[in-house]
Write a structure and sequence with these properties.
Layout (H helix, E strand, L loop, with lengths): L6 E9 L3 H11 L3 E2 L9 E2 L2 H23 L19 H49 L3 H5 L4 E7 L2 H11 L4 E5 L7 E6 L3 H9 L4 E3 L8 H50 L3 E3 L2 E9 L3 H12 L4 E5 L1 H7 L7 E2 L8 H10 L10 H15 L3 H17 L4 H21 L20 H29 L3 H6 L4 H18 L8 H16 L1 H8 L13 H25 L2 H24 L4 H36 L9 E2 L15
Parallel strand pairs: 11-12
Antiparallel strand pairs: 1-9, 1-10, 2-9, 3-8, 4-6, 4-7, 5-6, 8-9
Helix pairs in contact: 1-7, 1-8, 2-3, 2-7, 3-7, 10-11, 11-13, 11-20, 11-21, 12-13, 14-16, 14-19, 14-20, 16-17, 16-19, 20-21
Length: 658
Amino acid sequence: MFRPVPMVHLQVQIPIRDGPAVTRRIAAQGLLHLIDIGHGTSQSRVPSATREWLARYRDLARTVRRLAASMAVPELVAVADVDGEQVTDFATEFDLVRRQIEPIRARVDEALACIATAQEDARHASEQRARARTVEAAALDVGRLRALRFAAVRFGTASTDTFASIADALTPDAFAILPLAGAADLTAIATAAGGRERLDAVIRQHTFDAIDVATAPSDTAALERSLAGAAQREADARRALAEERRVSGPGVAALVRRIDIAVLLLQAQTLFATTGRFLVISGWIPEAQAPELEAAIARVTEGRAVVTVEKPDVAATASRATLGVPILYRNPLLLRPFQALVDLYGTPSYGELQPTAFFAISFLLMFGLMFGDVGHGAVLAAAGYWVFRYMPRFLDYGILLMEAGVASAVFGVLYGSVFGVEHWIPALWLHPIHDLTHFTRVAAAIGVVMISGGFLLGIVNTWRSGERAAALTGVRGLFGAFAYWTVAAVAARMLLPAGRTVSGGLIAVLCAGAAALLILRPLIVRFLAPHARVDGVTTTPLSLRALEASIEIVDALVAYFANTISFVRVAAFAAVHAAVLVAVFAMADTLARYQYGGTLSIFVLVGGNVLTILLEGLTVTVQVLRLEYYEFFGKFFLGGGQPYRPLMLGSTGAEGEA
């Protein structure tokens, strides 16, 4: 819980010919987090043929997926459901897939082309039929129109604004715009024969759907037959496509999965390196599963593999170019939601203590303090249980809501508050509004505890990272902690009420501890970091170095004091939560005095509590996260880690992520 799953560095050296088989076995095991071993080392990168095959397979994957989409093949099964052994030699596999897919694609393309042609024919026939009906409804004498010698007439449809614009453009020539009776929207524009060219030019400049009545089709029966024929051809093509989907759809889906596996394995091989005729595979694996993968590789290669397993510290010493050790958490179910919140801040490094448990305890403590109410906590817990029970996709959110609800209810009992009513149950501790001064001192004490916990975690992390002198003598180490505790003890002695005080002996001990670490710093640095040198130590005067150190200490103490004061918001938001409910009850009491006020007051009480749960709950969550991230994590969190992402036959898509 406080440490990630122990990892070991596994390096495999195999003959190049065994590369595909070993890659398949590693992916099937789903245990090895691959490292780009060839990058930045003397070893050669994987042969360029691998990258060429990867590009070809990706192109093939896009082609086959487009074909599957054209066929409306149902949702594809995840790659994890396919046996990796189906993928053989990549060249043979590529030719096999292409030979299988080409006939299917030809038939599908033919059906789609038939559908497109039929739709285009139907569209054209429909337009011609509409024009024929329009001309027929206008009852025009086509023969007389063709015999016109002294006038030019154009027929068509357009909007009213378009006709107005055409009229402006034809002015001052003589013209007439005549809507035709009996023909919906069909209009004639007439002008003198000499203005024919200008009329045509004006029409071309406007959105005018011209209809040549002299050449317009008149055989509507033939057009109806054309429409029926186009519809029949489209239906036949769609039936052919549906039959092709029924017959070839499962095969296409299987081919997509085979290609995805090939893409996955080829992308994994781009992370390998070569030395002569051998392939080098490197990665991290949980220590407990290393023998299992080692045995699987030995079986696949028939003993031709050389496998080296190293601890993280040995591996880091042997190869500085190696990427950092990935993090695999092993938190229990109740802590898993808080792990996601920690990951929002950053991924811890492999060597530092995992902060999830500390984060969870402090989060629930501060949330309960700021949102303490039995009724509101019960609502949150019930909502969380509903999400947990009926929405498994959001399981973590359900757990978080239930835990936050329980914390809120516990502190609601301590406050004696049930949906804002403070006289139903007795308060076992205090009322946030009436005891605000005491609550403020408690919040500040929580800040001291949180900052101190951050110091201790930071000391452990810094020590384990190898900076042992800084862990003891740095302003973020044990020296900074003693200095902070000294200032905090002095402040507590001054601010605590009579009868409660901090002994002078404790203050003297803390001050002596800080002074001892400061005085012994050169000896500690020389003993714990004999090869470390402080820049300018031989050239900078002692007085200037002392001044710089003093400024650094004062600056750090001021920052720590500000961090501590920031926790006073715990008391402030607890009081705000109670005050909002007081305002809701006051509004309900005021409305109850009027006619029908009893009903309105019930709505106000219910609505006020709902809004308080939603808005105050969100606000309190944001404030708790702020205190965690900025005041607590800043004291110890190193970060820089990376999550554990093993190569596995999972759902990868056409890109095939490794």
